Each structure stands twice: as structure tokens, then as C-alpha cells.
Amino acid sequence: MVEAHLIELRERLSALEALAAVDQLILAGAGLDPVVEALLDRMQPVMRCDLTCIALPSASAPGAWDLRLDARDGAAAERRTLTGLRGSDPSQPQCGPVPEALREQGARVLRAWPVLLESRRVAILGAGFRDAADPAALDEPLDSFAQRLSLAVARHEREERLYRQAHYDALTGLPNRLLFRERFADELLRVRGGATGGALLYLDLDDFKRVNDSLGHEAGDQMLTVVGQRLRAAVKESDTVARIGGDEFTVVLRELPAVAAPIWLGGEARRLGVSVGIAAFPAEGLDCDALLRRADAAMYRDKRQGDGRADTRARR
20 to 30 A from 36, CA-CA: which of 10, 23, 142, 207? Predict the structure, then answer.
């Protein structure tokens, strides 16, 4: 009897130590991925089960789940990642991707535990045994692990939200001036290291004020949004399109995008003019501010000419 109590106390102490280690990570501001890895490291030893997993919403397949699974075979353990899982009924944890993945690994007894954040299901924990066991014994530790993961997701979402507010334009969803400068600095650093150069485009919409004055700011916002979408669609994923203020956009790419097709505003087609200035790098230097000034000056020369041609003349 005494020995059984000692074993139980040791197991509880081990569980508390495991949870405390995860708590320290969260309090230290660790990202979501390190917390997930730490939870996986500790779930199996605490619950003494054969299989554990954590499923998070898939970043590449909306409505699906990406699952990280630990499978123990004797003393050896293997961690694998399964992506784009849906399950027979993803809306129900017990019928979703976690139970199916555990059963495929030989689980005869299992639990799938939803991780909730403000009533939203943001993750699913799973644990399973290949032999007969009491699944109810998993509930308490799964709930404790779920609470930690919920806190980590909440911190991650808050940091993502703050980052987007600081780095992206609220209207168009494009990078703002701050993020543009960060990405452009990285691009110039890449070119300094010997990579192929490119071009900076500085774009200003012609007569944008007339649209705002004649059709209202809502139509102007619509025009800016459409322009942003067209620019983004015209470049590669690795290129940067940014709205740096008002009706001014910057683009780092190797081809001039097409944005001049008519835009329907207020029930009528409006043709869009755009003035463009181009500064090539490294031919015209590798200083971010100097290249911006050169592209900006070239754009204003293009606007004064009013012929829709991009100005690429270098003025030193």
C-alpha cells in the first residue's frame, strides 16, 4: 500500500515538473512551435501511453489540420508530421483527424481533447494505447496540457495581430512603409552578397484626388484596393508590393505590372493612369534611401510628362 502511494506521488511530481517546464517556456515568451514541441516531449511520459499527438489548423489547407504525432515502439520513439488531414467529421474531435491518425498507428483505446480559446477550437490533443487501458485516466493530464496550449495559441495570435497592425496596410492588406523598408533592406543585402539585381518601382496614381472628390472616399478606397490586388497578382510570391501612403505604391520586381485596365466605380468604368519611376540596383547603388529618392524623382518626372511611360533616367 505504501509503495503504491509512493509511486503515485512520484508520478504526480513528474507531471507537475513537466507542466512547470512548459509554463516556464510560455512565461519566457517562447513561440508557438517550441511550446508544441515541449508538450509533445512531455505528454507521453506523463500519461504513459503509446501514442500522443497535437493537431493545429493547417496553414496551407483551410479547414484541414496538420498533426504532429509521437509513436512509441518499445524504448524507441518516432515523431512524424501529417499534413492536410480532415477526418470523417472534423467538427467533432472524436470523429476528426486525431482519432483516425491514432487508430492507423494501432491505438485500441484513445482520447481526443479539444483545445479551446474563447469557445473557438484552436487545436486538438490526442493520446492512445495499443493495449487495453482506462481512457478516463487521460482526461486530467490532457486537460492540463490543453490549458497550456491554449495560452500559447492566445499569445501567438496576439503577436500575429500586433505584427500585422504594425507592418501591413489596413485597407489593401499590402505591406506598409515599415515592412517595405525591412524587405527592401534584405533584398539589397542579398544583392551585396552577389545575387542578381533587380529594380525598385515607385508608383503614384494619376488624378486620384479627382476620384475621391467626384465619387467619394469609398470609391477611392475601392480603387486603391483593386490596384493593390492587380500589382500583387502581377508579381512573384518572393517580390514585394507595398502601399507606402496615400495613393503611392512601391514594388521590387523585374517586370512592370499591368494596372491600366478600367476599374468599375459607381456603375461606370474609370480608366486608371499611373506614373512610375524606376531605380535599378545595384547599377544605381545599394542604399535604400537613395534608391527611394531616385525612384520617387523619376516618378514625378514621368507624371509631369503625362505620357504613361516609365522614367528610368538616372540623375546623380
Answer: 10
SS3 assignment, position 25 = helix
Task: Encode pLDDT of 195-222 as tens digits.
Answer: 888 889 999 888 788 888 888 889 999 9
* pTM, rounded to two decimals: 0.74
* Strands laid side by side in the 240-245 sheet: 240-245, 248-253, 198-205, 274-281
Catalytic residue (one of 239, 247, 296, 311): 247
> Which CATH entry fits the domain spanning 2-166: 3.30.230.10, 3.30.450.40, 3.40.1710.10, 2.60.120.10?
3.30.450.40
Model pLDDT for residues 127-147, shown as the tens digit of each residue: 999 998 888 888 999 999 999
Asked if 296 is an active-site residue, the reply is no
Beta strands, E only, 30-108: 51-57, 65-73, 76-85
